Amino acid sequence: xxxxxxxxxxxxxxxxxxxALFPGRVSARDVTLYDGHQVPTIVRADDRxxxxxxxxxxxxxxxxxxxxxxxxSDVAKCRRLCIVFGRYDSDLMRHIAxxxxxxxxxxxxxxxxxxxxxIQSKRDPATIYLLIAGSDTRGTIWGVVDLTRELGVxxxxxxxxxxxxxxxxxxxxxxxxxxxxxxxxxRGIFINDEDWGLEPWAAKAYEPETGNIGPKTYTRxxxxxxxxxxxxxxxxxxPSTKPFYQIPGNAEIAHDYAIVVGSAHDEPxxxxxxxxxxxxxxxxxxxxxxxxxxxxxxxxxVEQVKGFENIYTIGLRGRSxxxxxxxRTPEDALAATGQAIAIQRGLLSxxxxxxxxTIPQIFIPYKEVLDIYNMGLxxxxxxxxxxxxxxxxxxxxxxxxxxxxxxxxxGLYYHISYWGRPHDYLWLGTTHPALIxxxxxxxxxxxxxxxxxxxxxxxxxxxxxxxxxxxxxFDRKLADETPQAYLIAWAARQFGPxxxxxxxxxxxxxxxLAFERKPEFMxxxxxxxxxxxxxxxxxxxxxxxxxxxxxxxxxxxARAEAVxxxxxxxxxxxxxxxxxxxxxxxxxxxxxxxxxxxxxLYAREGRASVNVYSxxxxxxxxxxxxxTATYNSLGNGKWRGIMNMAPRKLPVxxxxxxxxxxxxxxxxxxxDASQLMFVAGxxxxxxxxxxxxxxxxxxxxxxxxxxxxxxxxxxxxxANGFExxxxxxxxGRGAIDGGSIACGGKTLPVETTxxxxxxxxxxxxxxHILSLTxxxxxxxxxxxVPGLGSRDEALRSKLDLPSxxxxxxxxxxxxxxxxxxxxxxxxxxxxxxxxxxxxxxxxRLAVQLDETPVQTIDYKTFDRSDEWKHNVLxxxxxxxxxxxxxxxxxxQLKIYALDPGFILDRIDVRLDGAPDxxxxxxxx
Length: 924
Description:
The chain is built from 21 helices and 36 strands. By secondary structure, it is of the alpha/beta class. Helix 14 packs parallel to helix 15 (463-474), helix 18 (544-566) runs antiparallel to helix 19 and helix 19 (572-604) runs antiparallel to helix 20 (610-637).
């Protein structure tokens, strides 16, 4: 993959490589495309797609320089400097290549590659050509796109308003280059669940003349795909959207942009069943009773689109993302699916006039179809098996050894947006990049490389995740970087290097918080059937977790707002769309729900802060409303209707009631110092709360040693709900003393605890829990997964491990810890809820504590089970081992991988009296 950065290899090596690749006149110097006075001429091959590429490049150069370049197919228009591009075998390319003695024939037969080289004209030595020769049409386009990236133009210059900035000079690398082939052959997006964003925006704001998602909108989408170096679209297909092939111009625009059109798992043969099948005309959508009508329906579409570049989904599902209609048993469904595939392949062969095994086809074993496939469905070897995730980012299964030998290879269908049970997440883009990186790396290592499609919902606000997915699809070497490193580079490209590190840090915390629980899941309800909101589990241990979560969200919101203020005017809209809106909206919904949960908790406890919490919750909701209105007003109405803060109007989005109560007059002061437990040598910040039962009071602190308070005095009254939370900072050095609080005429001691670990870095028992981070141990059977899990790094059992029946050859992870007293205990082994790697694997661990017998624990879940639902809502999978009378003293825990691809997060040793946290217990 080529980037805007210069290669760091030596000049000598670079020249030698260039000479080998490009015999003849090869330049190794920088090329000035714009000197402040003149822009280059653009000469492109004479076809519709190259014309579009030339216009895109001209648009970018105009935006950067203020001067519009000449765009032509006539090389005679070239003066001084020309950017010339086209397929390697076009007359234009052969002519220019001959000027410099450049051999382009090595590009023959290559998939989406290009050569870029600087050539001096033989006829006019004052004329220089920057030649971009593609192995095919899309290879040429990627050469143009890489050039625009090198010039500093963001992929989001239109879709997220990262406006190109005017420059006085444009210089690009003049060294010869040969691009790497894409890592995945077909890479693209599925526009889905577009009812609340993209479709109403297109229909009312952007393309009212069509009143739907039509060619004008798809033109913008396809240019975005170009800029992200993607080549495939599964078009929008919900009932609210007119079918892709029923709107004149859609298919032709895809052809002009060289975009491959495919379709989702429930749209075999490029048919949109929910809108295109008419029961009144065609009869029932039932393969068992109305087969002839269905076959004719498929044939008509294939005949209609045979002149375009397509990937055909084959197989059989119900009309609307449902199980096969008319099948009484799984065996019926198995037989019918096999028969339908045979018929569909015959239709394709007849229409396209060539053997079926030469026509790109995919089979997607999604939901119940996976069960049918695993029953023994025979899918022809040339058909690509496209493995889906479970809709929540965890791939259901990948190809086993036999499946990897199939000529059609395999692919991936992945979600960063979803409508369905146990709960939608259609509003914000919150899938953790570390999970995306892990799952795509898993797919790549299992030879899953033919087609990767990501379900992007409305495109916005999933921009960052969409780009990351497609970047990994184009260049899998990006998986060698941490997600944070990728985000730093991404932020630098959009907003400049000065704030890139801070923006990436904010985003990582945003994704970390959502990985613990997505904002859409904060109502703690489910759908299908819809259940009402309930008090969430963040307050089940007394409210500290809820307060901590609110504080973390407030902190990144404040940081994001500070970054926004520091950015120039031309990046304000872009930062709001890409960072500030998702961060602040997520924070506001969490704050609204958590504050109401705390109000309910404290009302039961007789505390007087209920009204203040309720008012703050209302303000948080109003912030979401205001921010959404701002989003939809950006660009003088450009994005009117694109952002909906309540997709499907689910309970979690509805404005709640804000309870109020008459505050009692109870002036007695209370000091809550329950969080003030510190570990020597480990800097930490915790919270001290001072409150009354409803009476006004003043307070002041004195006598603190080794800790610093954010405020040392204050007033408790109706304005703050008779409550004040004080930050207590410990720098990790010296002994501490909490001192006392004078409040309401009394002096109240502040109880603090300082624990000195036996050795620095060893686990410490806090609140009767010792929490062992998985990555604190190592084994040749395991590898680290950066950025994933509750401790920012998890362990994955290696993908090439065999599934074991015993422990022979297994190398354990070994953890050591010590307990302070004899106690019953529970080992809570927390994993990331992945699925067995292939159909031939399980998902097991073997666990041994001290010299007790080895226990095997299995994490495999069943589709749509209650356990699976809990797992995907929390991003955890848990097994608990009970230990009777765990002795005081040192212990050793060994964990063995019995299957490949298991991801271990942490192990909590829970002694009697341990609180039941929602998330990971504190490690201090």
